[in-house]
Amino acid sequence: MLGLPRGGVPVAYEVALALAAPLDLMLVRKLGVPRHEELAFGAIASGGVRVLNPDVIAQARLTSAQIELVTVEQQLELDRRERHYRGDSAPLHLDGLTAIVVDDGLATGATMRAAIEAVRERHAAAVAAAPVGAASTCLALRDFADAVVCNLTPARFVAVGNWYGDFEPTGDDEVTELLASARRR
Predict the structure, then answer these.
(1) HSE-up of 86 (CA within 13 Å, CB side)?
(2) pTM of the predicted model, to two decimals?
(3) 65-112-81 Cα angle (round to 5)
(4) Bridge partners of 43?
(5) Nearest to 23, CA basis, from 173, 180, 169
(6) N or C: which end of the chain has fewer CB within 10 A?
(7) What was the pLDDT predicted at 185?
(8) Per residue in 60-81, pLDDT tens?
């Protein structure tokens, strides 16, 4: 079970408990369009993975320099989180296994695509999973993942947070605590 920090980790923790599976992280960062950061033109993941959305890049008229600047900024944050969350712990061995990659929701699917590619580079099958997602995103992810599990795919999706009663941001401390709890069991 691989949770996407931060919001995917509490969801992945519960699924890992239910399946008695080990829990780890797949660190990813969205690459947001400058001045419209919520709109992803791509994403990066641990292991040097980067996926780009050419349609968004063209629509936003992003230059190569802008793409590289955002990528470098997000790589610095990804590296910081890797150090903070993992400490001395090595990532789970995935070679030959099936990894269920869990997020709290799937809007554009950019970060999930990067996570799937990173899982594949670690020689594992990848299942994308989220409680809710845009129908078109869940469908499109089938081209990249071995399977996609998305319980709710509303016709009018709008945003992940709209489908939660409480969508307070998950903090670094909560992620660290959930990982420690999962390791203890």
Answers:
(1) 16
(2) 0.93
(3) 70
(4) 30, 51
(5) 180
(6) C
(7) 84
(8) 999 999 999 999 999 999 999 9
